[in-house]
Amino acid sequence: MKITEVLSRHGIVALIAALLLVPGSASSQSTANLTGTVTDASGAIVPAAAVVCTNQGTGLKHTALTNNEGIFRFPDLPIGVYDLTISHAGFSAANRQGIVLATGHSVDIPVALQIGQMTQSVEVTETSQEIQPTSSEIQTSVEKQSMQNLPLNGRNALQLVLLAPGAVATGGVNWQSANQGVAVNGNRGTDNGYLLDGVNYIDPHYGTAPVLPSPDALQEFTEKTSNFDASEVGSGANVQFTTRSGTNQIHGSLFEYVRNNVFDSKNYFSTSATPFKRNQFGGSLGGPIFKDKTFYFLSYQATRTVGGANPSVAIVPPASYLTGDFSSLSTLIIDPNTGAPFPGNKIPSSRFDQNMVTVLGFFPAANQSNGTYNSLPRSNLNDNQILGRIDHQLTSKDHLVARFFYDSYTFQEQTTALQNPYGNDAFKNRNAMISDTHTFSPNLILTGSFGYTDVGRQRSAAGLPFLPQGLPGVNVPVATLDALAAHQLSVSISGYSSFVSGTPITLTPKTFEYRTHVVWEHGAHLMRFGLDAVRYDEYAWDRSFQEGQWTFNGSRTSSAAYKNSGNAIADVLLGLPFQFAQHGTEAQNMYQTQIQPWIQDDWKALPHLTLNLGVRYAPWLPSVDRVAPQVGFEPGVQSTAAPNAPLGLVFSGDNGLPHAIFSRHMANVAPRVGFAWDIAGQGKTVVRGAYGIFFRPMPLNMQRFSGNTAAFRSLATSVSAPESFEDPYATVPGGSPFPWTPVTPAGLKTYVFNLPVTTSALIPHEGTSYVQEWNLTFERQLQYNMGFSLSYIGNRMIKGMDSTEANPAIYIPGKSTEANVNSRRPYAGLASVQSVRDFQLSNYNGFQVSLNRHTEKGLTLISNYTWSKCLDNDSNTTGSVSVINKFNVNADYARCDFNPEHIANISLVYDIPVITRFHGFADKALNHWQLTTITSLQSGLPFSVSSGVDNSLSGPTTNSGTNDLADRVPGVSTARPAGVSKLAEYFNTAAFTENALGTFGDSGRNSITGPGSWSSDVGLLKNFPITERFNFTFRAEAFNAPNHTNFGGPGTTFTSGSFGKIQTAGAPRVVQLSGRLTF
């Protein structure tokens, strides 16, 4: 019998039953372990010593006895500050006070008892332990005071993830954080796990973190970045945010943070500061309901924002182009009627498409010397969030936690003068959890938790100033339409800003979760057995581009006979698009279940050596649509569910295909092994290392791509090189399919497909993506409680899932045109097939140096430097096709899009020393200052130089166009010419030319590195003690305090007027003021 059958039929069932049927429930897993060895003054072990562990905040006590090796353990303690009392007959009692436990830490406290009476005691105040001598994991922690005091723009705690070594923002981390990514150690931003009080807090549609609670509601942040144990999922970082709880003493805060553009500097490309106002206000309150037993905590934060954070930059054509005069352009403009250049490179006005003249008339005139149009975007945001938590000591053996978090915000933003891709966004996020920790005995504890997350989103479009259906002679029937989808269209112009109205969508992804695990201490073994069960549900209603998508890229005014010919604006003037597509409505109702048991043994094999041994069973069960069949692609196979479908287009149930199309993968076993060697046995010098396999989850937005097909969404046949802007369906058999009604599964039997079919599809029988990770770390505790570490981190990703074109047109010399692209595709009856398959691969190698110090004597420090190299053949995670060579995906193997070679971070919280001779007013005015800062530096990201035309003639992929690279000019360096400003020409543009006909370009993916960046955010805080318990803090914060200009990347499209030019810059210095009352 196969091992997979044993696991699936017997082992899994038995383990699930055992874990589910054990009485008691669960812990939030925001826990730590406290261990120690008790000896006498000579070093001899002391068994049967009584140990009492007391939480300073809540007064809750835990008891244990040392075993025959003199070892005591308190596993799964809630994070916080603890006191220890150790006693034994014939010895004086020993007290250890102020032991700080952070999430995931294992703190080891050696205790030497002195001979004396038990009524006598010896007290020692502990300092925080920088070195973890028993774990092979690499992690970074930030405690409550640092979270509240570090300068965080918009008070977004997700920015703290970037403080860890190897972490980089992949989409920008703004205050709302919706759909933003953070990549860690070469892993994708969708590979991270985000936990809030130990339960999943992820938007399963995008695989990223939703809006987090305010820093006032958070107790701690911990980020594990490499080789975490078998209890954790994912291959990227494991990020844990823990909310605050009540204590025996009432505590709370009131605050308001204010930003106003009157304090801000102007952007490099602006003449004045961008109008912007933001107010964030709220408070928190926590305390006891019943002393030492029941505690509450509440928090509220509101945010009101008006104005744009940065100016928008539109790349507009020169005024001469709009009149048809391209004489200043070295690129030739070819007359598509004659195949020869227009005389003088000027298009006569008699050839203009008057509707396109109307569209081009909405381009504003350039108002910057570099030819761009800078404007102040509209941006309005209203956000309200509340959090409530109850901690209750149910019995002496059960600790109960219940917590609810709700966030509601509406967001409206215009990113350029021409487009509003998001319109109005309305988010409603809910996350709730309940847990209980049951202690059977000091060495046997059962934990678990129930969690629920709902990340609802509704996005509408904002109308453009024109509607194609309102222009004379336009024959494009509107697809099924509702109020949210009004004016759903796009006019994309290669090399210039586009007219885009937005992509309205309704998403309701929900997560239901049950976690449980048992901790069993047995001799030198600390063993944990667990089960994670997660159910994802998502309803998605997509109404994108129901009034059409027109793409112009210069191909219609270019010719193979003339190198470097064509311009997108010229194509627009003639009304000749490169491609047209139109969408209907797509509704999907999907669910997915993941059940993963695991076992972990932390074995103290030798007094100074701990082995971390674990294994996780991670079967992958793909998502399933409750309503419609899903669509797959199997070349040469005739569908039986839809007999009229072209060969290769298959559906759920065809030839034994599962409903999900993707097969289940039941053999996913993920071992994790590691060691921690405490060289001298003093917890001061540790060498740790680990290796593990981590299976990667696939975001739901990738799995739902199969809905983009005729019959279910009726994405109209993509029209290559339509005859005109006005009638893109003129050459399509049967004309426009709209208006249109979705086909039922039963109707597939008789459905007649409009050929050739443009579709998105899943590839059956693909594998499960996984990552192999390894690390080796040296750590040393230095003076002043500083922790130094030097690490080598490596990983390798295999079978990553993303989209690629499965039906590219084959180039036939002398016989290939854009008009005959579909006839040259290898699979007849099919046009573009955007397929999801397991072709991605990557590898990462990095060296990291860290110097950290947790809060002690007024100084907290987190600093690190990373030098790394990340290589892959595709960095995309969104499902759009970014592959360049559609026939050979590995030809794109190069530097990862998102990973800079060098990253450095320094964060500091420093209590400026008090001058003791000051008293009274002088003390309040001149003492109690605090300085905080976050400084980040990174080298530039790589980028590719694109051709801007489809010279490969491989055909566009739906929604993705073409990705041809430019060719390199032999013998010409890419280095910027001497005496030329980097803004005018960041690299030598003369080193590139259009790719040769029938090729994908030879300049190479990510062959040039963009500008690096650095920024320093600084806060100055003044505390005004009111009474012993009340304190008022005034703070002034400056983000990008030096007002250093971080330039954006240059134009990368060869045919664009902005090619090689830098026309954007990051945020200038902005100032935030606040007042805060704490008690």
Automatic annotation (TrEMBL):
<keyword id="KW-0998">Cell outer membrane</keyword>
<dbReference type="InterPro" id="IPR057601">
    <property type="entry name" value="Oar-like_b-barrel"/>
</dbReference>
<feature type="domain" description="TonB-dependent transporter Oar-like beta-barrel">
    <location>
        <begin position="242"/>
        <end position="1072"/>
    </location>
</feature>
<protein>
    <recommendedName>
        <fullName>TonB-dependent transporter Oar-like beta-barrel domain-containing protein</fullName>
    </recommendedName>
</protein>
<dbReference type="Pfam" id="PF13620">
    <property type="entry name" value="CarboxypepD_reg"/>
</dbReference>
<dbReference type="InterPro" id="IPR036942">
    <property type="entry name" value="Beta-barrel_TonB_sf"/>
</dbReference>
<keyword id="KW-0732">Signal</keyword>
<dbReference type="GO" id="GO:0030246">
    <property type="term" value="F:carbohydrate binding"/>
</dbReference>
<dbReference type="InterPro" id="IPR013784">
    <property type="entry name" value="Carb-bd-like_fold"/>
</dbReference>
<dbReference type="GO" id="GO:0009279">
    <property type="term" value="C:cell outer membrane"/>
</dbReference>
<dbReference type="Pfam" id="PF25183">
    <property type="entry name" value="OMP_b-brl_4"/>
</dbReference>
<keyword id="KW-0472">Membrane</keyword>
<feature type="signal peptide">
    <location>
        <begin position="1"/>
        <end position="28"/>
    </location>
</feature>
